[in-house]
Design goal:
By secondary structure, this protein is of the alpha/beta class. It contains 15 helices and 13 strands. The chain is globular. The structure holds pyridoxal-5'-phosphate.
């Protein structure tokens, strides 16, 4: 294969200033014909104390200015619709367009959250069924769709654990978390007032019952575990570990972000888990990233059901309704009912795949990851060489002999037309490169990617300076990320 057969790298990408540099004073987005209705000056209708003394700094642009601005910026972007996106732990799979078609149907898209429930029966039924599907897929008893992201699902789950333990007489003070965990896990604990105790993963990259037993005492509220974990490895001692935690009165939280590896194959509910969150934007193909709405439903065992966030959707004789009459609920964690459009997409995906299709998702995701693992282990050091689940973690150990670091390799991948993988995470692998191909990529795509990675590995030996100076092709090269965050070019300053 030659470079030309890899993803193309040429095309017109336009320069684009900030929107404040476009436009001109007085330019307007659109104009309307003279109205027959008398004009009101809003400034005269509003109390003077509430009016600003100076006009806000807003761009003055035409509709076409705005359209070109955002379309051009979108062309600078890299997305799953542009190319392969092996960002580990993020499950950047293709979002089938049928999900979008269905979510855009006006019967869903134009609903108003204040509509009477009698006019929302179809939407309520969809939410009810999605709750049921998620509970069934994970082996749990009940679910709430409310949380807006995985991290908020964690927060809601820990609130439930706290409320449950409080009812038993002691909310306890600590949560056990393995050292391979995602950063949101300890953050959610802190937000719920729990102290984090970090558990060391065993030599095989998974948690051992001995380590849990040693740390487990009557002050531990929960163990928070990710399965498969962020090394892409299945936590094989789950049932035994759960028993150790339960025997001392604690609960088991499962971070379900990596569910794509086991969906339809194994149920965490059967492994002793009491509560887990789903990332609909990972496993169930709702749009991902970009700050758009996500969804992180939580599912629980019977003992935690009364504590689920409000409202959940229940079935009456022949209708569906929001159930607010749940005195033990931890309350709302999100305005209204959660990000409903995401529920429509996830529901559509689940119905489209069916039970057999979902099982195949996990099988192919694991197959693709192991294909990458076997093909790339010749060129890059593998932190844990055993069979992996949905992702595998390489490092820069071999390339460091040439002064090349993970960051250089990641930047060089952009020159070959790929989004870099997750880097420097999990923290327990020095110079980690975590790759998750997902099931939606073809053999051709994987082979091209493997070819590119082989080229980069060779370049590290033959022309390390090229790799160190990467990326060469993208429109913007090395960004000063700290400066971008600390000194934004335009910032709205409210008058004191
Ligand atoms: C993505 C992820 C999270 C956080 O989920 P968000 O939806 O981004 O809030 C938590 N844990 C793991 C392992 C993840 O991969």
């Amino acid at each position: 294969m030659t470079a030309r057969e890899g993803p193309g790298k040429r095309g017109m990408i336009f320069a684009e200033p900030t929107i404040f540099e476009r436009g001109a004073p007085g330019r307007e987005g659109f104009s309307l014909a003279q109205s027959e209705v008398p004009l009101h000056d809003p400034a005269k209708e509003i109390d003077a104390s509430l009016l600003r003394s100076e006009a806000a700094l807003l761009p003055e642009v035409s509709e076409l200015d705005v359209l070109r601005h955002f379309t051009r910026l979108s062309q600078w972007n890299y997305s799953i619709d542009t190319g392969f996106y092996p960002l580990g732990s993020c499950t950047m799979k293709y979002n089938p367009r049928v999900n979008e078609e269905v979510a855009r149907m006006s019967g869903w898209a134009k609903l108003h959250p204040h509509q009477p429930q009698s006019t929302l029966q179809g939407a309520l039924e969809l939410m009810y069924l999605l709750q049921k599907f998620l509970a069934q897929i994970s082996g749990m008893d009940a679910a709430s769709l409310q949380p807006a992201a995985g991290a908020q699902g964690e927060f809601a789950g820990l609130l439930m654990i706290r409320a449950y333990l409080q009812d038993q007489g002691n909310a306890r003070t600590k949560v056990l978390i393995p050292d391979s965990a995602h950063g949101t896990n300890p953050a959610s604990c802190a937000a719920c007032g729990y102290e984090v105790v970090t558990l060391k993963s065993g030599a095989q990259g998974i948690l051992t019952p001995e380590v849990v037993a040693q740390a487990m005492d009557e002050e531990v509220a929960a163990l928070m575990i990710t399965n498969p974990n962020t090394l892409g490895l299945f936590e094989t001692h789950m049932a035994e570990i759960a028993k150790i935690v339960h025997d001392k009165g604690g609960l088991v939280y499962c971070d379900g972000a990596n569910l794509n590896a086991i969906v339809g194959k194994a149920r965490v509910g059967d492994m002793g888990v009491d509560v887990l969150h789903f990332n609909l934007h990972k496993t169930f193909t709702t749009p991902h990233g970009g700050g758009g709405p996500g969804a992180g439903p939580v599912a629980v065992k019977k003992i935690l059901e009364p504590y689920l966030p409000n409202p959940v959707v229940m079935r009456r004789e022949d209708s569906f309704a929001f159930d607010f009459d749940r005195p033990k609920s931890v309350g709302r964690v999100k305005a209204f009912y959660g990000n409903f459009g995401m529920f429509v997409r996830a529901y559509t995906y689940i119905r489209e795949m069916g039970a057999v299709g979902l099982r195949e998702v996990a099988e192919r995701a694991v197959l693709n990851a192991n294909y990458l693992r076997k093909k790339l282990e010749k060129f890059f050091h593998l932190a844990y060489p055993q069979t992996c689940m949905h992702e595998c973690v390489f490092s820069d150990k071999k390339q460091s002999a040439y002064g090349i670091k993970t960051l250089n390799i990641a930047k060089r991948m952009m020159d070959y037309g790929y989004h870099p993988p997750t880097i420097y995470f999990p923290l327990i692998v020095a110079g980690a490169m975590m790759m998750e191909p997902t099931e939606t990529e073809s053999l051709q795509t994987l082979d091209r990617f493997i070819w590119s990675m082989e080229q980069i590995a060779k370049e590290c030996e033959t022309s390390p300076e090229t790799v160190k100076a990467a990326p060469h092709v993208p429109k913007v090269r090395r960004l000063d990320e700290v400066k971008a965050a600390r000194e934004p070019k335009y910032i709205y300053k409210a008058k004191g």
